[in-house]
Design goal:
Number of strands: 21
Shape: globular
Largest sheet: 10 strands, mixed
Helix content: 25-40%
Distance between the termini: 20 Å
Number of domains: 2
Radius of gyration: 21 Å
Bound molecules: guanosine-5'-diphosphate, 6-O-phosphoryl inosine monophosphate, magnesium ion
Strand content: 15-25%
Length: about 425
């Protein structure tokens, strides 16, 4: 059984929490895109785990995989493995030989491009864009090469002069070959034991009826093609891309769970049709602790955008929705939700393909009565009727059933519908 959990908005929807909630019934959890630009939070009792690259399934000692489409910062990965081992976790880790390695020059280039560019994307400066650019240009270094010293030395030696030149053009010095090797060779030694063919492993696991969870990073609107280009990430967070990334037939994907907050947030630049400013935004930001898990940046806040969610549901083919952070809206007198855009006198029900047009769209809102969410609920019946009406509207507008509702960061603050 193959299930994908993917972000339906601009990332940070609570994918880590939902994956952890579902992981008790899974055998394998796989990260299929992005790198340590992601920050996934899992809260169990009084313990909080923050993952940037390790799949959230590690908390429940599941088999964890990093598929070919992932960009790996080996230093961050080693530190997460060590942190998990220290807390007594016993998970198995498999890293696909084809996964790309984030090199020190990728991180420097990401930072340099951001600081010099007029139209800043607001990246996480983790080297993600330059790393995927190297993959496309066929100058990247893959995990299987990285863990073989001779090949790694050769690859690095060949690519470094070009990276030095590029960095010099920004007035930045590239670290020497020796410095890079001194840092990366010990990391390669530690990680070599995890090398695997994740595509083959998953094929076999699925044949043996194992339950595999795919953990998406980022979200639909950050997709390199379908997001608000160029204000996007450099990988593909959508469900169909996950199959290509893990190397499994698209026919095998059974469930596609889209995760969305009950409102909307965005980190970094780019259009945000339902964005709020002022006191209301500050209230939601503080109540929802909307500060980046990776960079600590304050997240931009807005009302739920159902045009975006409808498009995300269509393109991903969500079989169900998980709505998170419903509790954060508690206490508001009125709650608004955008169900269409106004653009040049027309009403739009789908996100326009052109980002410059999206930037000019105005939200059309429906207003709902506010609600108070109890701290503990036994079933969906405990939800106030105004919250139920809000959720029903989301389902109807997106033609997708809500199967999970999260009303707090802790694992047990989750309702199945
Ligand atoms: P991810 O990147 O999609 O995994 O999400 P993040 O972990 O970056 O951000 C989600 C944040 O909201 C984390 O701090 C979670 O602990 C927290 N969270 C998740 N679900 C809920 C919820 O239902 N209510 C509240 N209040 N917090 C939640
Ligand atoms: P998770 O998995 C929210 C955003 C950055 C920036 C854009 C490009 O935690 O949901 P990048 O560093 O990827 O080149 O930055 O994408 N971004 C995220 N925003 N959650 C994430 O991951 C993100 N990963 C990247 O803020 O706008
Ligand atoms: Mg996050």
């Amino acid at each position: 059984m193959l299930t994908a959990v993917v972000g339906a908005q601009f990332g940070d929807e609570g994918k880590g929490k939902i994956v952890d909630f579902l992981a008790s019934k899974a055998d394998v959890v796989v990260r299929f895109n992005g790198g340590n630009n992601a920050g996934h939070t899992v809260v169990v009792g009084d313990k909080t785990y923050k993952f940037h690259i390790m799949p959230s399934g590690a908390v429940q000692n599941k088999v964890c995989c990093l598929a070919s489409g992932v960009a790996i910062n080996p230093e961050v990965l080693v530190s997460e493995i060590e942190m998990l081992k220290k807390t007594g976790k016993r998970f198995k880790l498999l890293i696909d030989s084809r996964a790309q390695i984030i090199m020190p020059y990728h991180i420097l280039l990401d930072g340099a491009k951001e600081s010099k560019s007029k139209n800043k994307i607001g990246t996480t400066k983790r080297g993600i864009g330059p790393c995927y650019a190297d993959r496309a240009a066929r100058t990247g270094i893959r995990f299987g090469e990285f863990v073989r010293e001779k090949i790694f030395r050769e690859k690095l030696h060949a690519v470094l002069p070009f990276k030095r030149k590029e960095l010099n053009s920004y007035g930045i010095r590239c670290p020497s070959e020796r410095t890079i090797l001194a840092k990366y060779l010990p990391l390669a030694k530690k990680l070599k034991q995890y090398e695997a063919d994740v595509s083959l492993f998953l094929q076999k696991a699925l044949k043996q009826q194992k339950r595999v969870l795919l953990e998406g990073a980022q979200g639909f609107c950050l997709d390199n093609d379908f997001g608000t280009y160029p204000y996007v990430t450099s990988s593909r967070p959508i469900a169909s891309a996950a199959l290509a990334s893990i190397g499994i037939s698209a026919r095998l994907l059974e469930r596609i769970i889209g995760v969305a907050k009950a409102y909307c947030t965005r980190v970094g630049s780019g259009p945000f049709v339902t964005e709020l400013k002022g006191k209301l935004a500050d209230f939601i930001r503080e109540k929802g602790k909307e500060y980046g898990t990776t960079t600590g940046r304050a997240r931009r806040i807005g009302w739920l955008d159902l045009v975006m969610l409808r498009t995300a549901a269509r393109v991903n083919g969500f079989t169900e929705l998980a709505i998170t952070k419903l509790d954060v809206l508690s206490g508001l007198k009125k709650v608004k939700v955008c169900y269409a855009y106004r653009f040049k006198g027309k009403t739009l029900k789908e996100v326009p393909a052109n980002t410059f047009e999206l930037a000019k769209c105005k939200p059309i809102y429906r207003e709902f009565e506010g609600f108070e969410i109890p701290e503990r609920m036994r079933s969906v019946e405990d939800l106030p009727k105004e919250a139920k009406a809000y959720l029903r509207f989301i389902e109807k507008q997106c033609s997708t059933q809500i199967r999970l509702v999260s009303y707090g960061p802790e694992r047990t603050q989750t309702l199945r519908i």
